[in-house]
C-alpha cells in the first residue's frame, strides 16, 4: 500500500520527527506499533502522521499535532512511555527525535 503525503493541515502546528535505526522485523514490534497507532489517533490534538523505512533499517516517522500540549500529552502517555523504554532495550540501535513548529505548509498532487 502506498501512503500519500499528508496535506491540508492549517499552520501553525507541531511536528515530532522520529528517525530510527532497527532491524526490519524485530519480534513484537509490529503489534506494539499498531497499538501505538490506535492509541495516538485518539489523542486530542493529533493531526496525523507519515512514515517510511529503508531496506537497511533506517526509518522516519513524522507525527503532526495541533499544539505543544497535545504533543507533550503523547510524549508522556504511559503506554507510549513503556513502548519507548522497551524499544530502547530490545529494538532500536539508535534513534533521534526532533520537535518543530510548522508555520507554512503546502503541497502538490497530480490529478
What does it look like?
The structure is a single chain. With 111 residues, the chain is of the alpha+beta class. It has one domain: Alpha-Beta Plaits, CATH 3.30.70. It is built from 3 helices and 4 strands. It is globular and about 35 Å long. The model has no long low-confidence stretch (mean pLDDT 93).
Observed structural traits:
single chain; 111 residues; alpha+beta; Alpha-Beta Plaits; 4-stranded antiparallel beta sheet; 4 strands; 31% helix; globular
Q: What's the number of helices?
A: 3
CATH topology: Alpha-Beta Plaits
Total count of domains:
1
- Helix/strand order: EHEEHHE
Percent of residues in helices:
25-40%
Q: What does the radius of gyration come to?
A: 14 Å
Shape: globular
In CATH's first tier, which class applies? Alpha Beta
Assess the beta-strand content as a share of residues: 25-35%
State the assembly state of the protein chains.
single chain
The class by helix and strand makeup works out as alpha+beta
Stretches where pLDDT falls below 50 for ≥5 residues? none
Arithmetic mean of pLDDT: 93
Query: CA-to-CA gap between the ends?
Result: 19 Å
Largest sheet: 4 strands, antiparallel
- CATH level-two architecture: 2-Layer Sandwich
Strand order of the biggest β-sheet: 2-3-1-4
Record field, number of beta strands: 4
InterPro entries: ABM_dom, Dimeric_a/b-barrel, Jasmonate_Hydroxylase-like
Pfam families: ABM
Protein name: ABM domain-containing protein
Which helices and strands appear, and what pairs or packs with what?
Elements: E1 13-21, H1 29-40, E2 46-53, E3 58-65, H2 68-76, H3 78-90, E4 94-102
Antiparallel strand pairs: 1-3, 1-4, 2-3
Amino acid at each position: 500500500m502506498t501512503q500519500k503525503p499528508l496535506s491540508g493541515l492549517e499552520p501553525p502546528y507541531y511536528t515530532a520527527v522520529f528517525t530510527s535505526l532497527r532491524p526490519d522485523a524485530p519480534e513484537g514490534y509490529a503489534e506494539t506499533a499498531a497499538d501505538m497507532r490506535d492509541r495516538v489517533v485518539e489523542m486530542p490534538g493529533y493531526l496525523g502522521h507519515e512514515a517510511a523505512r529503508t531496506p537497511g533499517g533506517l526509518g522516519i516517522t513524522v507525527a503532526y499535532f495541533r499544539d505543544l500540549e497535545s504533543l507533550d500529552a503523547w510524549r508522556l502517555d504511559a503506554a507510549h512511555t513503556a513502548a519507548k523504554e522497551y524499544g530502547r532495550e530490545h529494538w532500536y540501535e539508535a534513534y533521534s527525535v526532533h520537535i518543530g513548529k510548522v508555520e507554512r505548509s503546502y503541497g502538490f498532487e497530480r490529478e
